[in-house]
Write a structure and sequence with these properties.
The protein is α/β, with parallel strands linked by helices and 519 residues long. It has 21 helices and 15 strands. It has helices spanning 2-9, 14-32, 36-47, 94-100, 109-112, 116-122, 160-203, 215-227, 244-253, 272-280, 297-300, 319-328, 354-359, 365-371, 388-403, 412-420, 426-440, 454-461, 470-484, 495-499, 503-512; strands at 55-62, 67-75, 87-88, 104-106, 129-136, 141-149, 234-237, 262-266, 281-282, 294-295, 305-309, 330-332, 339-341, 345-350, 374-377. The strands form four sheets. A six-stranded antiparallel sheet has the order 3-2-1-6-5-4. A five-stranded parallel sheet has the order 8-11-14-7-15. Strands 9-10 form a two-stranded antiparallel sheet. Strand 1 and strand 2 (67-75) form a beta hairpin. Helix 2 runs antiparallel to helix 3 and helix 15 (388-403) packs across helix 17. It is elongated and about 105 Å long. The chain starts with a helix and ends in a 7-residue tail after the last helix. Mean pLDDT is 81; it is low at 1-5, 7-11, 201-208 and 455-467.
C-alpha cells in the first residue's frame, strides 16, 4: 500500500518507497523481538528485499579490552570451518568506523586486503565486498553492523543514507538487548547470592557471638578492630576449633562492606579438581559435567568479603591463579576468555605452618607474603582457660533453649574438670561436649558423662602448665638433639641430619621456637 501511494504521488521512486517500507519493517521487527539472534534473523529476511547480502553481522565493541567481537550472525552463503575470533580494533576495518562514526564501503578484494589479518580470517566466508555501519546511540558507540556480499561492487554510496537509518534503529535495539542481558545476569547472580545466604543462615552460624574476657582474646579483638576498617588482606592463624570463622565474620561486620556479601569457602572440603571452579566459576561446557554456567565465590563476593578457610590446602597448580586475583583483582571463568574484574576483601585462615610449607616448597612464597599482610593469631582454648566458665554457661543455655531443657546449675566439680581439661579440639570440642551433656542431663544440673574428659585429664596431670603443647614438645626434642650434636647444625653428624630435615628448615624452626645457642 505504501509503495502504491508513493507511485501515485509521483514524487518518490519505487526503490525509495521500498526503502521506506523496509524501515517500517525494521521498526516492527525491533518491537517484536527481544532476543538479538531472532531480531537479526527477522531483519535479514526483510532487508534482503531491498539490499543484497550474503551475511549480516552485529559486531560488539569491547572497549575494556579493545576488541571487536562478532555478537550475532545471519547468513545465506558458505561458512568457514573455524569460527571467526575477536579482532583488535586496529586489525578490524570496523575500528575505523568506530573512530570516525562514518560508514565504510569496501567494494573489491583489493580493498579488503588493506586489513590482511581480517581478510585472512574472513575469506572462508566467500566475502568480496563489505558495507560497515556504526551502531551508536545517544549514550555511547556499541559496535558495527556489517553487510557482506559474495560479489564485488555490491554496495553503492547512494545506499548509505538508507542503511544508516536502519543502523540507527538497530543500535537502539542492540543497546536494549545488551541492557536486558545485563539485567538478567544480575538477577541470576542475586538469586544465587540469596540461595547462598539462606544456606549460610540455616547451617553455618554455630556461635552467636565471641565469648570471653581473657587477655589473649582481648588482644585478638583489638587487632581485629584495628584492621577491619581497612581493605587489607588478613591471615587468621590458629588450631582447629579456635573460632577462625567467627573472627572472619567479625572483620566483615566491622568493615565498610558490612552491608555486602560475606562468602566463605573451605578449601580443604572441596576436591582439588573442582576447587578452581568453586573459586572462579565456569561456563557451560567448560568441562565434562558443566551443564550450565556457574558463578564462582570471588564473583559472588564482589564488593564484599571472601573468607578462604584452610588456605594451606590449596593445590600448587592453583596458587598462581589465586595470587593473580589477589594482585590484579581480575580472573576468567573456566572455559571463558572474558576477564572479570572484582573488588573483594580477602580473609584467609589456616591451622597449618605456612612458613614451613614455604621452606618445603609446598606453598608459594609470593602468595604467602600476599596473604600474610596482617596476621591474626588465635590462642588455643587451653591458653585462655579463664574464658571456659563463661563459654560453658553460654553454650549450656544455648542448647538448653534449643532442646526445651531447663539447666539451672553447674557444679563446682564439673566446672573445675572442664577448666582443667586440655581441649585439643578447642571451642568446637567444648561445644560438642556441652551439647552431649545437655542431652544426657536428666535434671536441672549439667552432668558431664563419665569418661569424656578422663583420658586427657590423665595427660594433663603429668605435665606442668604450659608444657602440654605440641610446640613445647617439639622444642624440647630439638634442644635435646642440638645438645647431642654439640649445636652443630649441618653435616653428616649435625642436628639437621639427625632430625631428618634441611639445615635451613631447622634454622627456621629454631627461630620460630626461639631456640638459640647458649653462651
Amino acid at each position: 500500500m505504501i509503495i502504491m501511494e508513493c507511485l501515485e504521488a509521483k514524487s518518490i521512486s519505487a526503490a525509495t518507497c521500498q526503502q521506506y517500507q523496509a524501515l517500517l519493517a525494521v521498526a516492527e521487527a525491533i518491537v517484536a523481538h527481544r532476543d538479538l539472534q531472532a531480531l537479526l534473523h527477522d531483519l535479514a529476511g526483510r532487508l534482503r528485499e531491498v539490499v543484497p547480502f550474503a551475511h549480516i553481522v552485529l559486531v560488539r565493541h569491547d572497549a575494556e579490552n579493545n576488541l571487536m567481537h562478532r555478537h550475532v550472525f545471519d547468513h545465506t552463503g558458505p561458512l568457514p570451518i573455524e569460527p571467526v575470533p575477536a579482532f583488535t580494533v586496529e586489525d578490524d576495518p570496523g575500528g575505523v568506523v568506530l573512530k570516525t562514526q562514518e560508514p565504510l564501503v569496501l567494494s573489491t578484494l583489493a580493498d579488503l586486503a588493506r586489513w590482511p589479518k581480517y581478510w585472512e580470517r574472513v575469506e572462508g566466508f566467500g566475502v568480496k565486498s563489505l558495507c560497515i555501519l556504526p551502531l551508536t546511540t545517544a549514550r555511547h558507540p556499541l559496535g558495527t553492523l556489517v553487510l557482506a556480499s559474495g560479489e564485488e561492487h555490491t554496495y553503492d554510496h547512494a545506499d548509505l543514507g538508507f542503511l544508516q537509518r536502519v543502523a540507527k534503529q538497530v543500535a537502539v535495539a542492540f543497546e536494549n538487548a545488551l541492557a536486558f542481558d545485563c539485567i538478567e545476569e544480575l538477577k541470576e547472580k542475586l538469586e544465587k547470592e540469596k540461595v547462598y545466604l539462606e544456606e549460610e543462615i540455616r547451617t553455618d552460624n554455630n556461635f552467636e557471638e565471641i565469648i570471653g574476657e581473657s587477655t589473649a582474646l582481648r588482644r585478638v579483638l583489638k587487632e581485629v578492630e584495628t584492621v577491619a576498617p581497612t581493605n587489607s588482606t588478613v591471615l587468621i592463624i590458629g588450631e582447629t576449633g579456635t573460632g577462625k570463622e567467627l573472627i572472619a565474620r567479625a572483620l566483615h561486620q566491622l568493615s565498610p562492606s558490612r552491608e555486602r556479601t560475606f562468602v566463605k569457602l573451605n578449601c580443604a572440603a572441596i576436591p582439588s579438581g573442582l576447587l578452581e571452579s568453586e573459586l572462579f566459576g565456569h561456563e557451560k561446557g567448560a568441562f565434562t559435567g558443566a551443564i550450565m554456567q556457574k558463578i564462582g565465590r570471588f564473583e559472588l563476593a564482589h564488593q564484599g568479603t571472601l573468607f578462604l578457610d584452610e588456605v594451606g590446602d590449596i593445590p600448587a597448580e592453583l596458587q598462581p591463579k589465586l595470587l593473580r586475583v589477589l594482585q590484579e583483582q581480575e580472573f576468567e571463568r573456566l572455559g571463558s576468555t572474558k576477564t572479570i574484574r572484582v573488588n573483594v576483601r580477602l580473609v584467609a585462615a589456616t591451622n597449618r605452618d605456612l612458613p614451613q610449607m614455604v621452606e618445603d616448597g609446598q606453598f608459594r612464597r609470593d602468595l604467602y607474603y600476599r596473604l600474610n599482610v596482617f596476621p591474626v593469631t588465635l590462642p588455643p582454648l587451653r591458653e585462655r582457660s579463664e574464658d571456659i566458665p563463661r563459654l560453658v554457661r553460654h553454650l549450656t543455655q544455648k542448647f538448653a533453649r534449643r532442646m526445651g531443657r531447663q539447666i539451672e546449675t553447674i557444679s563446682t566439680e564439673t566446672m573445675e574438670a572442664l577448666v582443667q581439661y586440655n581441649w585439643p579440639g578447642n571451642v568446637r570440642e567444648l561445644e560438642n561436649v556441652i551439647e552431649r551433656a545437655v542431652i544426657l542431663s536428666p535434671r536441672a544440673e549439667l552432668h558431664i558423662p563419665e569418661g569424656v574428659l578422663k583420658s586427657n585429664a590423665v595427660k594433663s596431670e603429668k605435665v606442668t602448665p604450659g608444657d602440654g603443647t605440641l610446640a613445647d614438645a617439639e622444642r624440647e626434642h630439638i634442644l635435646r638433639v642440638l645438645n647431642d650434636a654439640n649445636w652443630v647444625l649441618g653435616g653428616a653428624n649435625g642436628a639437621a641430619t639427625k632430625l631428618g630435615m634441611k639445615r635451613t628448615t631447622l634454622q627456621s624452626k629454631m627461630k620460630k621456637l626461639r631456640i638459640s645457642k647458649p653462651r
